[in-house]
Amino acid sequence: MTSITENDLKRLEDIIATRFDELGRGQTEIKERITAIENGQKNLETGQKNLEIAQTEIKWQIAVIDSRLKTLETSFQKIPDLAEKVGELKNWKQIALTLGGALIGGIITYLVKNPNNP
Fold first, then answer.
1. In angstroms, how far is the first alpha carbon of the chain from the final one?
2. What is the pLDDT of residues 8-41, one digit of tens each?
3. Of 107, 104, 100, whose CA–CA distance to 117 is shortest?
4. Residue of 26, 23, 3 lying closest to 15 (CA atoms)
5. ∠ CA 100-85-97 to the nearest 5 degrees?
6. What is d(CA 110, CA 105) in angstroms, rounded to the nearest whole number?
């Protein structure tokens, strides 16, 4: 067997110290990567929560729009009835004007034929 010199021990200590430093840097790098992965996971969870909130808001807005459309649908269904009533009112106006004109014409005719009788 050969004898170990002090230089050999010193070199061996340097090699071991270098390897420990490399291991320490490797552990630090692994910790940093794990932290980055955890942060990414937290960001994904936050994004998912934000999407769920947005989805809930969209569902609520759709429900509001749906209820407004139902209200408008009811109003639109009343339009033909209202148009018919307006048409009836126009007919009544025409009838009233015709009767009024006939009444005035009758009075004027009566006055013209009987100028002495007021």
1. 161
2. 888 888 888 888 888 888 888 999 999 999 999 9
3. 107
4. 23
5. 10
6. 8
